[in-house]
Fold this protein.
Amino acid sequence: MTAQMMASLWTGPEQVQTQQVARPEPGPDEVLIKVAYAGICGTDLMIYLGKHPRAKAPLIMSHEFVGTIASEGVEGLPLGAPVAINPLLSCGECPACRRGVGYVCEHLGLVGIDRDGGFAQYAAVPVHTVRLLPRSLPLSRAALIEPLAVAVHAVRVSDLKVGDITAVLGAGPVGILTAQMARLAGAAVYVSEVSPRRLNIARRLGFAVIDARSTDPVAEILRATEGEGVPVVFETAGVQATITQAGQVARILGQILQVGMPKAPVEMDLTPLLFREVRITPIRVYREEDFDLAIRLAAANVLQLEEPVTHILPLNELEKGIHLSHEATDACKVLISPGAEAP
Ligand SMILES: [Zn+2]
Ligand SMILES: [Zn+2]
């Protein structure tokens, strides 16, 4: 009899079933991971709604997961070793890959979108996606490494300088992590947000918080900079309001880091940006080095990675978790903990 496991399967638009399935058998160049935590991301919501262009049902979603090695025989990956998955699957052949920038591969795939991911007790993944973690790093904190890698990438490609005033528009998981990275880089950080729960997280972390329900973030940021605007602004919500605000608070020769992914086309008035020669730098995912740095920063315990986590749910509450993340009012990062039995 083949070994079984519990998995939350996406079976079609707005359908998730938690059921027993065959535990995956790792093929050549693959290794079995016993999943400890798997994060719910906006991309999982798009898949769940049937709006993701590539995902095909049935699928085990989640590209943000950590766990321990559960199969033997792969050199350098001993049984029980704690690991994170760098989910990027570049093709290796397109012009981007040939130029050594596979993170913007033309055919970029992800574990959890283009093949089964982490909303299950076990996942078989390509060996090249596996990153060993220090044993001193609790997996509950390591669970945020993938979104942290996005924040690391955004801040490190930005022009941010020590002592700058900067703004992060949106305090979702990536916004909160970006704000922490910007502070680590030496900036004074304003964070604007509309969700009370997320505002509270930003407040607890000591950021200058703007409650965008009652205060105009543009007026507040301009006041803080004597009307000049900020040299670097991070847009992390991906909605029309914050994208418009980003254009209004970027100062002359400033830079907008477009981190939030808009779910539909948005409008941007380019003329004022042209007059001020403001650059827009889009952030898609992260480079290899950003992911590895995210692991080191998590291990160094210089960031508060547990703070954005508002919920840890079992597999059979994935659908609830997706709704919580989507509504955003009372949630920030939602993790699924499959509680796998010993292999
Ligand atoms: Zn994600
Ligand atoms: Zn490629």
Q: What stands out?
A: The mean pLDDT is 96.
